[in-house]
Amino acid sequence: MDMLKRPLADYLAHRFGPQCVLAESIRFPRGSSRETWFIAYRVTPEADLTRVVFRSDFPSGSTIPSSLEQEYFIYERLGHTKVPVAHVLWWEADPAWAARPFYVREHIEGSWDIPHYHDPDPAYDALRIETSKEHVRNLALIHQVDWQALGLERRLPAPPSVADAGRFFIEQVETQFRNLHGEPIPLFDLGAHWLKARAPAAPRLSLCKGTNGMGEEVFRDGKIVAMSDWEEASIGDPAADFAFAQELVSEIERDGKQIWGLAQCLDYYFEVSGIRVTPESVGFYRMVQSLKMVMYSESAAVGVHSTPEAHIRQAWTGTEVAYVGKRILAAVMGLSAPLPPSRFADLNKTMG
Questions:
Q1: Does residue 292 fall inside a structural domain?
Q2: How many domains does the chain have?
Q3: pLDDT grade, residue 61 (50/70/90)?
Q4: Which three-class secondary structure string do you get for 36-87?
Q5: Residue 325 lies in a domain
Q6: Is 4 exposed, middle or buried (0-12, 13-18, 19+ CB in 10 A)?
Q7: Domain containing residue 14
Q8: How far lies 305's CA from each of 19, 300, 302, 319, in Å?
């Protein structure tokens, strides 16, 4: 664990006493934004096993240009709400131990994978629909959080009004891109200008999770027990979370009839939240995602260029994701033909 200057067993003994026993240390293989480790220990040899998660930036920084401390702050604040999240346990930045800051949160038993969810057999349609509804119910919880009472605006800039939500979101992406001080990308500037001219108003200003859905949340017995990975959180239009959802808004058609899809999903969301999100707004934020892909890939490329110890996934993000993001952004503006669906399937498979 290169986030530590000394062995993990020594660090745990420092935290919990000399009898603390390290039982397990596993690096999570998925994800390209930050480094995640699953750790298990016993405070004494006879004590019950305690499982926790260590989270830090890569040596070259995070692919996502938001701070680790902001992520920790959001977890801590949401621990006071009904949103299912892992509770944070401590922040570590003591230079005697930490090569770079990290935080520790509780480990929630479950899995990001849902058996048979991708099995095309109609026998699993009910599973797909109920899983999607479970996801929607939890998005509704997030979007109804009183973010002002929680003080989230201390870390997350908020649009001045619902009318400005879409434009403000893109301006935040532009600011993140400029702060990278990387290569100029004229297509990014053109895309931002083009999208701002088409930005819709929001139905309300909500806490939004950012990337969510398959691979981001922890499921157990068909229920979400933890909403994870808050590094892309923002205050803005709830439609953005439906645009950035991964695979949990399934389009299901049987015998020529649409039995589930975005329209049904948004109707169910309105039923449980009272917030009306339109398919057009979701479509807009899906276009914005291509702009974010270009920005994130440039962030990864800057990290690779500046640090020999950069993670291999950052090198991939700075090249493959950069190429795909630019192709999609050009297609969004009508400057090139859309990428074939298989290209997205290849990308998703690689990201997993």
A1: no
A2: 1
A3: confident
A4: EEEEEEECCCCCCCEEEEEEECECCECCCCCCHHHHHHHHHHHCCCCCCCCC
A5: no
A6: middle
A7: 8-106
A8: 43, 9, 5, 12
